[in-house]
Design a protein that fits this description.
The structure is a homodimer.
Chain A (H helix, E strand, L loop, with lengths): L3 E7 L6 H17 L4 E3 L12 H7 L6 H13 L2 E8 L7 E7 L5 E6 L5 H7 L10 E3 L2 E5 L8 H9 L4 E5 L8 H14 L2 E5 L4 E2 L2 E2 L5 E3 L5 E4 L5 E7 L1 H7 L21
Parallel strand pairs in A: 1-2, 2-3, 7-8, 8-9
Antiparallel strand pairs in A: 1-14, 3-4, 4-5, 6-7, 9-12, 10-11, 12-13
Helix pairs in contact in A: 1-3
């Protein structure tokens, strides 16, 4: 198992899908020059995020629709995997706030629908996904996707850790004023589960919504390996599998007491 | 509901039970002078912690034994509640690593047995408790006890949060080299659950075991209200119920998806 070199692409949301794809293509070229294996965009990067329920519904596509195909061509062209946020069509209601991992050969590795919707913004635009995130394997790494608010819940990362995840990849659009997520919760999730967490945030604004940047990768001991400022940037960070081995000498998992945890899974 | 003024008593373990009770009496007097309502000792304060399985077994007592009665007299004498770590006799095996909350009138409020044993030190000396921590009420506050390693598991504090806990009180004996607990995990538990966490650590050494101090109280937003250095100290911190009200305007609890969390409670 080799280092996994992850590019966090901290960027404003685009004004159009055409702009999104053109800028994604440029970012992937730059990420490859910097040696990255995989690039993560912010949440709902392809169409924009705070764009209103009507526009989200109009732009939503199936997981294998034209947007996904265009992203797959970019991935294949540059030979880089892409984790990309987009609105997924939902025949039964509002679209899902989704993210897709596409391999460097253009094949889809995983599609995930955000399960924990954040506030009125999410609830007005999206349906919540009804499946917990599932681990997938790529280049020997066991990877998992979460989206923004999902990762703030200790349950979500624990569920991935119980599946043996090595790195959790998180497209996000976290606003100014919630910096405790990057500074406290993301490193805590990493530390308590002995996994890497890569958190790629948006920057800039959509209308009155201001994104906080500060994208970060937390190591499996909970140290912040890289942290962005508020402005646009592309940062590449190498995840060292040796760190997982070392950190897991002190893992919580063997000492968990699942027999005592039943109330965590009780529906109210 | 008034402020709850908590004294974190960061102290070395005593050489004898007589010394423990004498020093506890002095600390309670000092805490009252500083205005405290409740004092928390380190884990296994009354007898010492890293003292070997034989000595723990010899010193263990029932929850209503002479040790508890002596602590109750001290609480009543000074009019201060005490959360105190001690070894609880177990007819079926090694003692429990326990803590007891005793009210300012000397009545027992709660007894709790550590459920997540830490490493060889705990496993050689103790049996793990078989009940999750239960909330108890005192002066209008909903309180819960955890012991040391317990609080590092997100599940334990979440279980208390689901019972409506306001403040989690944690006698601990965390060693030098594990400062991420005080700096990262304790504030994360507070932040993600919108509860106060008061973490009273030991300092000094027992044989080759060196305790890291840095006792702390995290606010319901995850800010560290007070943090000790490594040396012995008694710090009083006022917990403001208004902070709970404010912080809970952004609570994770209503957005949890317990229907997806079943694997958290599955025994391996």
């Amino acid at each position: 198992m080799n280092d996994l070199r992850i590019a966090l692409w901290q960027t404003p949301h685009p004004a159009s899908l055409a702009e999104a794809l053109q800028r994604l293509d440029t970012a992937c070229a730059q990420a490859r020059v910097q040696g990255a294996d995989l690039l993560i965009t912010p949440e709902m990067f392809l169409t924009g995020y705070a764009i209103g329920a009507d526009r989200v519904a109009a732009l939503a596509e199936p997981a294998d629709g034209p947007m996904a195909q265009a992203v797959a061509r970019i991935a294949q062209h540059h030979g880089i995997a892409i984790v990309c946020g987009y609105p997924e069509q939902n025949p039964d209601g509002r679209p899902f706030n989704a993210a897709q991992a596409i391999g460097a050969d253009g094949t889809r590795l995983m599609n995930y629908r955000k399960t924990h919707l954040f506030g009125d913004l999410d609830r007005a635009q999206f349906s919540a996904g009804d499946a917990a995130s599932q681990v997938f394997e790529w280049r020997g790494w066991r990877l998992g996707l979460l989206i923004c608010y999902d990762v703030e819940f200790p349950e979500t990362v624990r569920l991935l850790a119980l599946q043996g995840v090595d790195a959790v990849l998180v497209p996000t659009a976290n606003m100014v004023g919630y910096d405790e997520v990057q500074q406290l919760l993301v490193p805590a999730r990493a530390c308590e589960n002995r996994v890497f967490v890569a958190y790629a945030n948006a920057c800039g604004s959509e209308g009155s919504v201001h994104y906080g940047g500060a994208s970060t990768v937390a190591s499996a001991r909970g140290h912040l390996l890289v942290t962005a400022q508020r402005h646009a940037t592309l940062m590449v960070s190498a995840l060292d599998p040796g760190e997982l081995v070392d950190a897991r000498q002190h893992s919580q998992l063997p000492t968990r007491r699942p027999g005592l945890y039943q109330p965590l899974a009780v529906r109210e």
